[in-house]
Amino acid sequence: MAGPKPALGAWQDPSAAPLVEIRNVTKTFGSHYAVDDVSLTIYPGEFFSLLGASGCGKTTLLRMLAGFERPDAGRLLIGGEDVTELPPYRRPVNMMFQSYALFPHLSVADNIAFGLRQEKLPRAEIRERVAAMLELVRMGDFAGRKPDQLSGGQRQRVALARSLVKQPKLLLLDEPLGALDRKLREHTQFELVNIQERLGITFVMVTHDQEEAMTMSTRMAVMNEGRIRQIGTPSEIYEFPSNRFVAGFIGAVNQFEGRVMEQRDDLLLVRSDVAGTELRVRTQQAVAPGTPVVVAVRPEKVLLTTEQPPPGDNSLSGSVEEIAYLGDVSIYHVRVPGGALVEAQLTNRARRAVAPLTWGDPAWIAWGADDAVALLE
User: Fold this and answer.
1) DSSP class of residue 11?
2) What band does 348 get if pLDDT is binned at 50, 70 and 90?
3) What pLDDT score does 353 carry?
4) Residue-wise pLDDT tens digits, 304-313
5) Do 221 and 325 share a structural domain?
6) In which domain, by residue range, is 192 found?
7) Best label site of 174, 204, 310, 334, fewest CB within 10 Å?
8) Do the Cβ atoms of 126 and 113 come closer than 8 Å?
9) Is the separation of the CB atoms in 94 and 163 below 8 Å?
10) What is the Cα–Cα distance from 262 to 281, expressed in whole angstroms?
């Protein structure tokens, strides 16, 4: 029996109104384009990530949403209201900084209450909201402590509570987990997502950490040199990159340059000298013969074996050149006759001290036409 259909995301609903609209926004610093004609819509309840390397423009875009930077061109709308010219304190937005920026002389409870007191809310309402936030982030037992008496993870939760207590429509997070160690960061990722889902507040996060963006986001935008290169869900970005930059930036990937020989319905036949053979890849695009393309396939899609696989879409022989044992998986680099170094990833399901293949061994690699993508740029 078929299960229920997955719920559509708001971005897939033509009747849904976006919460954030970034329209042709450009920001320069001198002659450098930090953000170059970027357009983007983000919907209520999303956990949206801006992902890219340092200097790609993601933080500048976040600061413009917060009101700390003003665009040279374009408009910014939140909840249908043009906020391009509004100062930060007049926007329905709060921001959580990487440094957390907690007041060292104030207790946890007073840090959380600070913004509400600035707005001169009634004391009873402040107490009620602060108590609710302390419970939400599980810091009730630490309400009287000062920030220097807390761990990094606890300070992160206090900063989150302070950002949420004012009930913003939009919460901006600038590398929120960057100060945490790896294990605590992984735990906090799920904690943040659970809090966001419970509150229903729209989160927009800046990060350079691919795993972080993939784990936490409903959708993400990959940025490079001030431009958005692709927008999609984590699975869309990973499985169906739209260009070589995104394919290479997100995870590991094998890329084989070649030219289209012919197209049979949705099957492309690509001659690749670096692979040393003809490759097959499925695509819904119509591609003319002679067009240069790149066939991209992820290492975990590649079958690695000591015996020649049965006839299929793509298979190459070679020799093992490098091996990396990572515990749960092993990474193999196989040199093929065309010169390409192909990466294959094998899951270590069985317990054993000796690997099935070692350096210099002959090996075969194979993958299906459905396991690769054809990239035209």
Assistant:
1) G
2) confident
3) 58
4) 999 888 887 8
5) no
6) 10-244
7) 310
8) yes
9) yes
10) 11
Band (pLDDT 50/70/90 cuts) for residue 6 is low
Compute the half-sphere exposure of residue 89: CA atoms within 13 Å on the CB side of its CA. Answer: 4
CATH number of the domain residue 178 falls in: 3.40.50.300
In the block, residue with structure tokens 């809090």: 195
Cα(113)–Cα(106) distance, integer angstroms = 10
Packing angle, helices 182-199 and 152-164, rounded to 10 = 20
Specify the pTM.
Answer: 0.90
Q: Please indicate, yes or no, whether residues 73 and 200 belong to a single structural domain of this protein.
A: yes
How many whole angstroms separate alpha carbon 300 and alpha carbon 329? 10
Q: In terms of domains, do 202 and 273 share one?
A: no
Domain boundary among 176, 210, 244: 244
Token pair of 250 as six digits = 């997100």
> 199 and 86 in one domain?
yes
* Residue 66: closest CA among 45, 84, 47, 40: 84
Q: From CA 149, how far away is CA 155, in angstroms rounded?
A: 9
Please tell me whether residues 97 and 186 are part of one structural domain: yes
DSSP, collapsed to helix, strand or coil, labels residue 76 as strand
Beta-bridge mates of residue 136: none
Q: Which of 199, 220, 244 delimits the end of a domain?
A: 244
